[in-house]
Amino acid sequence: MLRTITKVKDLPFNTIEKHLGESFYLFDVEKLKFNYCEMLTAFKSRYSNCIIGYSYKTNYLPALLEEVQELGAYAEVVSRLEYDLAIKIGVNPTKIIFNGPLKTGEDIALAMKKGSILNLDSFYEIELVQDYARGNKNQTYKVGLRAGFLLASEAGEPEQCGYTQSRFGFCVENGSFKRAIQLLSYIDNVKVVGLHGHFSTKTRSLEVYKEITQQLCKLSKEYIPTSVEYIDIGGGMYGNVPAEMKVKDVPSFEAYAEVICAVLNKEKSYFANDPFLILEPGLSIVVDTFTFYSKVIDVKKKRADYFVLVNGSIHNIKPTMHDINLPMEHIKKDDALYENGIYNVVGYTCMEKDYLAIDYVGTIPKRGDYLAFSNVGAYSIVFNPPFIKERPAILSKVKEEYKIVRKKEELKDFINENVYVFR
Ligand SMILES: *Cc1c(COP(=O)(O)O)cnc(C)c1O
Hints:
By secondary structure, the protein is an alpha/beta fold.
C-alpha cells in the first residue's frame, strides 16, 4: 500500500493516517548505512584492526538491528534481555559485547560458554567468573575490564549530568583496577584480554577521546602487555548535529578517528599483537536516521501566545525533556496563505511540560498540517513510556520503498495481556 510514494515530502498522509494514525516515525535506512560506513572507513583507513559494536540500548528497533547486523557490526549489549535480543536477531555470540553494571551468574556463565566479549564492571562479577571457570577447568576463558578514571580534559566534571565522576568501572586511582587484575590472575584458566572505557561526557570532545585511548593503552602496557587483544573506547561521540541546534565544536568521524588512531599507532608496538580497536557507537550513527511526523489537531491562542496541538508528545522526540528545539519542518496541507509568527508546539499528555517546540519562529501551522521533527533516532524510541497513549508506528524507507517495521500499538499491546492480569 505504501510502495508507490516518490518523495518524503509527498508522503501520502491520508493513506498513512488510515493505516497508522496521525503520528509515526520514518526510519531512513540508507542514512544508517551511510553513517556506519562513514565511521568505519574513517577509522579503518587509519587503523585497520577496527570493530564497531552497535549499542543496542540506543535504539533497538529490530529492523534497525538487522541492518547493522548485515553491515557486519558486533552487538554491544548491557543486559541479558538485550543479549537475548541479539541472539534472536541472529548475531553470532562471539560478536556480542556484553557490558553493563548488572549481570547474573547465569548471564556470565552463558557469555563465557558462548565466547562473547565480556567486560566486567564490579568485583561481584569477578567472583561469578571465578565460579564458572573453576567448574570448567578444561577450558580457558577471556574477559575484559571496564576501567574507571578521571578525565582531566573534562576538568573534574566528566559526566553529562554534572556528576563529579562516573559510577562505572574499576577505579584506577584508588587501586581497585589493580586489585581486579590481581584477583583474575589467580584464576588459572581466565585471561584478561581487553580494557573498556566508555564515558558519556558533556563535550564529547576530541581531547576526551585522546585521553581515553591514551589511558587504556597505558593501563594495557602496564598490566596486560602480552595478552591484550582489544581496547574498547566505548561510544558517546557526536553524530550529525544540525546547525539549528547551535552546538559548537562538533568533531567529524574523521577528526575522532585521527586523534584516536594516532594514539594507537604510536602505542601498538608495546603489545605482542596489534590490539583491536572497538568502538561502541549508539547516538552518533542513529540520531539522524529517524524523523517523527505528527498531525496538527488545533491551534489555540492564549493571551498573545500560540499553542499548536499535535497528535504527539515530548516523549516521542525528547525523552530527556530538554528545551532545545529540534530541527522541524512544517508540511502544509494546501497552498493556503500562512502567517509568520512565534508559536509553541504542545502534545497530547496532561503534563504542563509537554512542549515539542518552544517559541518556534516560522509559518503558523493550521489544522490538518503535519510537523516533522528530525534527529530523533537516539534514545527516543526506547525511552518512550507507555504513558496516556499508545506508541506510534514506525515506517522504514529504503530508496523509494516504504515498509511498516513497527505497527501502531493497540490496547492489547499497551496493556499486554501476557503480562497484566485481568480478573
Ligand atoms: C550507552 C552506551 C554506549 C553508546 O553511547 P552513545 O552515547 O549512544 O554513543 C556505548 N557503550 C556503553 C557501555 C554504553 O553504556
